[in-house]
Amino acid sequence: MTLSMIVEIVVAVLLVITLSISLVLNRRLGNLRANQEEMRRLIVEFDRALSRARQGLGELKTTSAAADAAHEERMKEARTLRDELGFMVETADRLADRLAGEAAGSRSQRQERTPAARAEQAAPRAQERTQEAVTPFPAARKPAGEAAGAGRDFRIEPRSDAERELLMALRQAR
After folding, report:
1. Which residues pair with residue 156 across a beta bridge?
2. What is the mean pLDDT of residues 51-62?
3. How does residue 133 score in pLDDT terms, banded at 50, 70 and 90?
4. What ranges does the record give for the region Disordered, renumbered to this chain (predicted)?
5. CA distances (Å), 142 to each of 107, 133, 148, 151, in order?
6. 116-123 own/partner pairs: CB under 8 Å, 24+ apart
7. Residue 2 carries which DSSP code?
8. How far is CA 145 from the centre of its chain?
9. Taking each helix axis from N to C terminus, what angle separates 3-34 and 36-112, rounded to the nearest 10 degrees?
10. How far apart are CA 55 and CA 61, in angstroms?
11. Where does 39-131 show beta strands of DSSP type E?
């Protein structure tokens, strides 16, 4: 065997290997070309789905921001109402304590008085009440057809400090 024959055999073997590799590549390229349209269709569908997802994400962000703003507004209103209610409760507690103290004091004074002294003190107080009586609201205009004195004429005693404070607190709460 000569050297030239060995070289020709090696070249022939390499050519067979190259031919087999090129056939495998040719088949794979043929499959790729055959599936190329399907790949394009899949890529277009994927792009559409991605666009819809981006649009949905934008809408979700907008909706979330609007809901967050509405929630913050409600929270501000709730905090304001909570503070007002807290103030009213504190004021009512103070007034209730004051009224309870005044009631206890008046009970003890009543128990100490004799029946004769009660009668003597009741007459001047009744006169004071009629003299100092005020209406709780300004007089409203009466309709033309209504007779004078036909409506109710409310008269109350002058308001105590506790009642004035409660009314002031309610007016400020508006």
Report:
1. 134
2. 95
3. very low
4. 98-159
5. 41, 21, 8, 9
6. none
7. -
8. 50
9. 50
10. 10
11. none
**84, burial (CB in 10 Å: exposed 0-12, middle 13-18, buried 19+):** middle
Cβ-contact 131, 56 below 8 angstroms = no
State in Å, rounded, how far the first CA of the chain is from the last one. Answer: 118
Query: Which one-letter amino acid corresponds to residue 51?
Result: S
Decide if 91 contacts 169 (C-beta within 8 A).
yes
Both tokens of 37, joined, read: 């349209």
For the segment 67-111, what is each residue's pLDDT rounded down to a tens digit? Answer: 999 999 999 999 999 999 999 999 999 888 888 888 878 777 777
Phi, psi of 146 (to 5 degrees): -85, 130
Q: What's the token pair of residue 15? A: 């050519």
CB atoms within 10 A of CB 88: 15
86 and 169 Cβ atoms separated by less than 8 Å: no
Report pLDDT for 66.
Answer: 94
- C-alpha 91/C-alpha 171 separation (Å) is 13
Query: What is the C-alpha separation between 7 and 1, in angstroms, rounded?
Result: 10
Task: Name the nearest CA neighbour of 50 among 38, 39, 42.
Answer: 42
Band the pLDDT of 34: cuts 50, 70, 90: confident
Q: Could you tell me the two tokens for 109?
A: 């004074």
